[in-house]
Amino acid sequence: MNEPILELEGLSKVYPGGLKALDNVDLTIRKGEIFALLGPNGAGKTTLIGAVCGLVRPSEGTIRAFGHDMASDWRKARARIGLVPQELSTDMFEPVHRAVSYSRGLFGLAPDPARIEAILRSLSLWDKKDERIMALSGGMKRRVLIAKALAHEPDLLFLDEPTAGVDVELRKGMWAIVDQMRDRGVTIILTTHYIEEAELMADRVGIINRGKLLMVDEKEAMMSRLGRTEAHIALANPISELPQSLSQFPIEIEQGGTSLCYRGGDGTGRGKAEVAELTKALIAAGIDYTGIDVRESSLEEIFVSLLGEEEAA
Asked: The ABC transporter domain covers which part of the protein (predicted)?
């Protein structure tokens, strides 16, 4: 397993008035992974990012980045962290090239025109380098934010809702850029409302709500463990009732006896295996079928289900 480059222990943040934005969060991020942090508005995602990037002072807990304690040695650690904020907060009157070069200088790095050019080219911004940021489209402005965050060559990059307000084509382009950054060894933590993107890109997923980290797991393991399998089996001949030999399976007769619906695997990850067992049991019971449509839960369905359970608790 890759070495941890970010470790949060007991991280809490209580704002004046009593709002608890982070509630005893423990989290370890490994070198080279893409970690997706999912949660509704107000869940604590941006506060967590702000705490690591030095924008929010935690009420309790410790943050260690690259072996440095962020409370006592934050400058060394912060120099290796990049942030693409959710809000388009940059000097709109600055030309693109100058704004990105300035961001590099903020971290005490010497000018490197070749590096800045490479970043701008990788983000399809080179032909816009002399334009003022205010003249760019929303998607291009967001690319400028990414360029500014990459200017000092960070090893850990935070992307806070990086594709919010960006059209589908630009979103695809941005995720290709994320892939390139991962290939260069950059560790990426992203928050997103587009859960299908987390499902596509992330190695691990964390779900946060009301400041509490409800779950962290490998994406595939989470989907297997918490997902549900649903299978619709088209029968060759209608049946009016299920034989006793099939009573162990979570199935129901549908569509006037011409179809069976299996819903199972909840919390076990055994859904597909059980569907295979079911088909053997059907044949043994003399029930012929003409087709099977099997569907697994999406990450979004798991996310919504977990939040629903927490709201009910």
From this structure: 6-235
